[in-house]
Amino acid sequence: MSKGKRRVLSGMRPTGNLHLGHYIGVLENWKKMQINDDCFYFVADWHALTTEYQDASNIRKYTDEMIIDWLAAGIDPEKATIFVQSDVLQHSELHLLLSMITPIPWLERVPSYKETKENLSNRDLSTYGFLGYPLLQTADILLYSADVVPVGIDQVPHIELAREIARRFNFIYGETVFIEPQPLLTSTPKLPGTDGRKMSKSFDNCIYLADSPEEIEKKIKTMVTDPQRVRRNDPGNPEVCPVYAYHKVFSKSEEVKKIEDSCKDASIGCVDCKKILFNNIEEFFVEYSEKRAKISSDREQISSIRKKGKERAYNEAEKMMEKVRNVMKLR
Questions:
Q1: Is residue 144 within 8 Å of 9, Cβ to Cβ?
Q2: I want to staple 11 with a disulfide (CB 3.0 to 4.6 A). Which of 44, 102, 172, 177 is the partner?
């Protein structure tokens, strides 16, 4: 790691295709951080098993698709380390060792534990794998001595757990092996799904990065708008309209202001507003779509990037595991 650079670690679960929310909310920030930071970005395929363990057949496919999306979005393997979690077995080794010192109540109090169980009540999540999800996440972070972990506000308790476990390990074994990571709260625009709810494949309301222009246009045409605009000449409130939320991301500032005013005085209808949005999204993703098609056709390139990332991640992880094994007197 170059002197003065922050070590950044972040990952995504390959449970489905990436959508526009991932691009705007995560990948845009990843691209900025890779310029000045020492970034490790990984496909969290073992994390995907916590909720997809009953049928893991799609995880491998989504793993490759995720890497393709990252590369097409501008994540540069020459600037950031791109790897797959299960390619580096030290993740599971450290997870096992940390599980020996982690009190169960620490895991049970993580807010997302009960919340996710309630949201996915149709699945059997009464497993250690699900309970221990934040502990595996802790292993991911501590393994690479990450200074910061970019997260949303709902994930901050996970980082605090990682800090607590790092302190407990260092105290038990009398040596500062792990540094305490800091959460990096990133400011990102929130894109709703096409039905106005949170964008999620569970709600079938996503616009995916791999969608064709025809598919994107069809989805935009069906997007919900301001419920008060029943007739064409009814004035609207842009702030409650999902289409306007997309305009604020994909349209130029002067056009956004024009659409806002035109919606309020009903000089533009929802159909025309959606047409403008589609044209802007299509233009925004022209370069992305071309890059994605090119990368998808070159599987050797993907394998090469994955191999290179694995080697660097493995070397960094093994350095840490040597320290862990030594202080625990396992060597």
A1: yes
A2: 44
Q: Which two tokens stand for residue 330?
A: 């396992």
AA identity, residue 85: Q
In this prediction, the residues of the chain whose per-residue pLDDT falls under 70 are: 1-3, 115-122
- Tell me how far apart the alpha carbons of residues 258 and 149 are, in angstroms, rounded to a whole number: 38
DSSP code per residue over 72-102 = HHT--TTTEEEEEGGG-THHHHHHHHHHTT-
Task: Provide the 10 A C-beta neighbour count for residue 237.
Answer: 14
Q: What are phi and psi of 153, to 5 degrees?
A: -60, -30
| CA proximity to 216, closest of 250, 173, 258, 178 | 250
What's the gap between Cα 283 and its chain centre? 24
pLDDT in tens, 153-184: 888 999 999 999 999 999 999 999 999 999 99
The letter for the amino acid at 97 is: L
What is the rounded distance in angstroms from the CA atom of residue 191 to the CA atom of residue 186?
A: 15
User: Which distant-in-sequence residues (6+ apart) come within 8 Å of 329 by Cβ?
Assistant: none
Q: Which two tokens stand for residue 137?
A: 């996440």
Contact 83, 310 (CB under 8 A): yes
Query: Which H or E run includes 183?
Result: strand 182-185
Phi, psi of 19 (to 5 degrees): -120, 180
Give residue 156's Cα distance to chain centre: 14
Beta strand 7-12 with 38-43: parallel, antiparallel or unpaired?
Answer: parallel
pLDDT in tens, 207-253: 999 899 999 999 999 999 999 898 888 999 999 999 999 999 999 99
Helix (H, G, I), strand (E, B) or coil at 121: coil
Nearest to 76 by CA among 45, 30, 43: 30
Three-state DSSP state, 92: helix
Helix extents (H) in 222-298? 242-250, 253-264, 270-284, 286-296
Contact (CB, 8 A) for 142 and 178: yes
